[in-house]
Amino acid sequence: MIAFESSDNASGHTAIPERTPTSANRLLRSLGISPKKALGQTFLVSEGVVAKIISAAEIKNGDLVLEVGPGLGVLTDALVNLQAKVIALEIDPRLTRLLCDNYSSVPNVTILNEDARKIDLTKLVPSNKPYIMVSNLPYYSGTNILRTFLESDNKPQRVVVMVQREVASRMLATPGRLGLLGIGVQIFGKPKIIDHVPPGAFYPRPKVTSTIVRIDMLENPLVPKENQAGFFTLVKAGFSAPRKQLGGVFRHTMSVPKDNLASCLAKASVDPKRRAESLSIKEWIALYRSFKESHWIH
User: Fold this and answer.
1) pTM
2) Checking CA distances to 178, which of 32, 170, 220, 241 falls within 20 to 30 Å?
């Protein structure tokens, strides 16, 4: 069994009480593993940050938790200590082997070598089983992973993730700065910032500050499932030229005649001179309904 500087605990696996950038480096070197830049690997090593994630997620004994990107297992250990049932998805086969060795004797932990962007959550978790998703999201694919969970037919109750601070700001953006990511998150849930995390909490040390974000999922998305494809087609069209006025953007991207477009915008009370980032989600929904009623979008 491989660990940093380990001691046995009541959970039946080798606990790792103290993690530091130095000990993480020592472990990886002993295994002949170098962090892959292509996978955006920066491993969380701060126990204090782990405690904040656990607190924000409100995880209790027996909860089902899906962890994406467990890395070296610092968050996984905390989940095991809470006696949560853990399903951990790790894309790197080298780390999957490490984690499988470390948790082989723990019955409530399942380690899967899977790409979370492609996982079918309806097959992984029973539809009637509530679960919580937690992750130190990789920078290169974090938003795509998040979309997988938010848009799934089997959504988590809540999500607690670590992302770049700039990404967190976009997730919580309001009209004037509201973009595709903010709309994509806020259609499905209510995000809030828990805390900011300095680069020193990771190994290797990233160049940017990270942020813990909690998303409380809405019982019903603001846009029904059957309308989401059409809605996001319209939103993406609007943001295809974010600095230009929506009237001109939609004429170009949607091929809507000028008079018909003017009618659609007027019905939604949207001035054609406005830009995409200035619209609220409520206005985007009204605009979608107007386009749909006029049969310019499905």
Assistant:
1) 0.90
2) 220
